[in-house]
Amino acid sequence: MAIILGIESSCDDTSAAIIKDGILLSNIIANQSVHEFYGGVIPELASRAHQQNIIPVVSMAIKTAKIKKNEISAIAFTRGPGLMGSLLVGVSFAKGFARALNIPMIEVNHLQGHILAHFLDEKDKKNPHPEFPFLCLLVSGGHTQLVVVKDYMNFEIIGKTIDDAAGEAFDKCAKVMGLSYPGGPVIDKLAKEGNAGAFAFAHPVVGGLDYSFSGLKTSFLYFLRDRIAENPDFIEKNKTDLCASLQNAIIRILLKNLVKASELTKIKEIAISGGVSANSGLRSAVADEGQIRNWNVYLPQLKFTTDNAAMIAITGYFKYLNSKTCGYDTVPVTRM
Predict the structure, then answer these.
(1) Interval 8-66: pLDDT, tens
(2) Which of 4, 44, 77, 91 minimizes the number of CB atoms within 10 Å of its CB?
(3) Which residues pair with 107 in a beta bridge?
(4) 109 pairs with which residues across the strands?
(5) Pairing between β-strand 144-151 and β-strand 269-273 as defined by DSSP bridges
(6) Of 187, 188, 218, 191, which Cα lies nearest the Cα of 202?
(7) Tell me: the pLDDT tens digits for 187-240?
(8) Which regions of the chain carry the CATH code 3.30.420.40?
(9) DSSP string spanning 41-63?
């Protein structure tokens, strides 16, 4: 029997989860609403909030799972990538907890956690899992990658963004329009009421399977600048169409390379993951493309798309089975 406590603190969500023999028993998340006022995450405020939240969140995760802390086999924690102050809180807590119980520590790459969230099963509910090898489009606020997943421990990045990530494009363009933070979900909601073909924006051309979103962001910014000069109320009068057109452009860029990657690798097991995988337009577009191309498409449950400790715990579980533990001298890293 293996019971893993997972800790996630890479950005502004403090989360703890318990996995027992591959089954998720609890997944507790404490959010930080303070950042909404600033239109983005303030690192110092995030780390302070983590310090306040980490103990009650872990305590609640253990209580909800109905286990005792001395039953825990190992503690898995996010080592990176992420904000250094936030990561330090999670890593420091993991070290103290592991030393107190004399149990091993397991470092987890946050991005691998997003991908392996597809293997989460819950009590009385077994979710569909992709078969190896599968191709995963990982889209989040800070990362956009195409990854060939050969097994639980073997990942190959075959494409990535060379500048902004898809999530950054959503949030930064939302900020330009005066929408609330985080902007991605707001754009998704407004896009449902708009015309995706109302406006056209630049699609950057990048070699291979890499992505670029800075050109799209610049195109959107200049487009608004010119239209506002003609009509100061342009954004307010065209908000839904702007959101729908922007979202459509981002999705087209993402899908183009996903299709190309599937053709090059001959892989038809296709998954998406990361915070942007909660976007309803992207989910529908990937599902539709899958029907056309005879893909087996795997869409993560919405509750496992954003940062959470369940994905850290399941990754830690697979690493524990493979005896991949780390020392107490492990330090967090902002980039991995």
Answers:
(1) 999 989 999 999 999 999 999 997 666 676 667 777 888 898 999 999 999 999 999 99
(2) 44
(3) 77
(4) 80
(5) unpaired
(6) 218
(7) 999 999 999 999 999 888 888 999 999 999 999 999 999 999 999 999 999 999
(8) 3-127+305-321, 134-300
(9) --HHHHHHHHHHHHHHHHHHHHH
| Among the four given CATH numbers 3.30.230.30, 3.20.20.140, 3.30.420.40, 3.40.109.30, the one describing domain 3-127+305-321 | 3.30.420.40
Q: How many residues are present in the chain?
A: 336
Q: What DSSP string runs through 249-284?
A: HHHHHHHHHHHHHHHHHT--EEEEESGGGG-HHHHH
pLDDT tens profile 239-281: 999 999 999 999 999 999 999 999 999 999 999 999 999 999 9
Sign of the C-alpha dihedral, residues 157, 162, 163, 166? negative
User: The tokens 């949030």 sit on which residue?
Assistant: 171
- Write out the CATH class of domain 134-300: alpha beta
Model pLDDT, residue 35:
61
> Which residue in this structure is represented by tokens 């902002």?
334
In whole angstroms, what is the distance from residue 324 CA to residue 105 CA?
Answer: 9
